[in-house]
Design brief:
It is a single chain. This protein has one domain: Lipovitellin-phosvitin complex, beta-sheet shell regions. It contains four helices and twelve strands, in the order ααββββαββαββββββ. Strands 1, 2, 3, 4, 5, 6, 7, 8, 9, 10, 11 and 12 form a twelve-stranded antiparallel sheet that branches. It is globular and about 65 Å long. The protein starts with a helix and ends with a strand. Keywords: Signal. This is DUF3108 domain-containing protein.
């Protein structure tokens, strides 16, 4: 009898510990791993085509023109400091840039920093800090401290690292949003504020990368079609890749497209299409 009791006690002692163990910790949420002094280098390739149909002043017949820009640049984000909350202060500089502008009349203008003469004309911003921002571990833009070129508001539409990470590790299909506002000042706008929503969708993790779908929408488009023209370049859609092992933004493949009919009256049209590819050059 005693032997039987001992065997049963041993059986239960080996079978029940699993019930008493604490649950396994949830997988860590993806986060930027900022390191003071670290330099993150990216190559950007952007191609933009604009087709515009307007009415000829003399004949009042529609006339279509087309222009385009191909831009290639290398930009560097240097982590200058990281505070106790994990918010990093980063400076961005451009070390290389080449732009090819195709004008409506068919002429092409090329500027390339690899050419000494062109590099001299770019001396104001080449290899110098032109943007200083504070970004937290989720990629949120906390502050634009300085923006020597371009609008500080534009950085809300085009985040320094293209996404805001979720509060927890997202399952495939999980979505989260980022609202932001942009003020369009003259000459592109009238000083109006516009509200956008950027929706993120997890497409799952693969080979150490979290793939996040991005879709940007305008909450309340202005009634006048012409006022939508400067807002179109902010409507980015595509995929962003985050390196969960290194804790860094790795790459993105984005596009913005729109066709606005009658933007300058009956019979006119504005067509915009831009593609954006960015890749980390870090080893």
């Amino acid at each position: 009898m005693m032997l039987r009791f001992t065997v049963l006690a041993l059986a239960f002692s080996t079978a029940t510990p699993a019930f008493g163990q604490p649950p396994a910790p949830a997988p860590a949420a993806p986060r930027f791993a900022w390191e003071p002094g670290k330099v993150h280098t990216y190559r950007v390739v952007q191609s933009t085509v604009v087709k515009e149909t307007v009415l000829d002043e003399k004949t009042e017949k529609p006339v279509t023109s087309e222009s385009g820009t191909n831009l290639t640049l290398v930009r560097k984000w240097t982590v200058k400091d990281v505070d106790k909350q994990g918010v990093a202060t980063l400076e961005m500089s451009i070390s290389e840039m080449k732009s090819v502008i195709r004008q409506p009349d068919g002429m092409t203008v090329t500027t390339d920093s690899a050419k000494p003469e062109d590099a001299k004309s770019m001396a104001e911003f080449l290899n110098k800090p032109i943007v200083t921002v504070r970004v937290d571990t989720q990629g949120k833009l906390i502050e634009v401290k300085d923006a020597k070129i371009g609008s500080a508001a534009r950085l809300q539409a085009e985040l320094p690292f293209r996404l805001v990470l979720p509060d927890a590790l997202p399952d495939a299909g999980k979505t989260w949003d980022r609202p932001f506002g942009v003020k369009i000042d003259p000459p592109n706008g009238t000083g109006e504020n516009y509200d956008f929503t950027q929706k993120y969708t997890s497409k799952g993790a693969k080979d150490g990368y979290l793939i996040v779908g991005v879709e940007t929408t305008l909450k309340a488009p202005p009634k006048a079609t012409g006022e939508q023209v400067p807002l179109v370049p902010m409507l980015w859609t595509g995929d962003v890749y985050f390196n969960t092992v290194a804790g860094k933004y790795q790459a993105s493949r984005l596009s913005a497209k729109a066709e606005l009919a009658n933007h300058q009256g009956e019979g006119t049209k504005f067509v915009y299409e831009s593609t954006y590819a960015e890749d980390s050059m870090d080893k």
